[in-house]
């Protein structure tokens, strides 16, 4: 059984930093990556950063210069270091584990498992 447990969320003033952690337990079939998503109030969930099995990293433009994704493979823990936080970063952050969808024509790497989410609140 796969389980993703996030921690590290909280409240911080603009310009501050937080580090999120996500411990993954269980075996991810056809694993192709790990990622962080967020859902801001009234908006849809969006990808923030992802690290893929080929060693590449994906990130949205608004966080590229401020956030860092890293992974401890020995403990299967995913991290998101967030610096210079802005009020627009306020959201529930979700950890995601991705698998290759073998039924899709291009074997897409898609989210298969989600964590429960952790709230990040940035205030002025």
Task: Describe the 3D structure.
The chain has 124 residues and is mostly beta strands. Helices cover 0% and strands 56% of the residues. It contains no helices and eleven strands. The protein has strands at 3-7, 10-13, 18-25, 31-39, 46-52, 57-59, 67-72, 77-82, 91-100, 109-114, 118-123. The strands form two sheets. Strands 2, 4, 5, 6, 9, 10 and 11 form a seven-stranded mixed β-sheet that branches. A four-stranded antiparallel β-sheet has the order 1-3-8-7, with no helix packed on it. The termini are far apart.
Oligomer: single chain
Helix content: under 10%
Spans of at least 5 consecutive residues whose pLDDT stays below 50 are none
User: If you average the pLDDT, what whole number results?
Assistant: 95
Task: Report the sheet-strand fraction.
Answer: over 45%
What is the H-and-E element order? EEEEEEEEEEE
Radius of gyration: 14 Å
- Classify the secondary structure makeup into a structural class: mainly beta
Number of strands: 11
Q: Mind describing the biggest β-sheet?
A: 7 strands, mixed
Termini separation: 41 Å
Secondary structure tally, helices: 0
Sum up the overall morphology in one term. Answer: globular
Entry summary:
By secondary structure, this protein is an all-beta fold. The chain has strands at 3-7, 10-13, 18-25, 31-39, 46-52, 57-59, 67-72, 77-82, 91-100, 109-114, 118-123.
Keywords:
124 residues; mainly beta; 11 strands
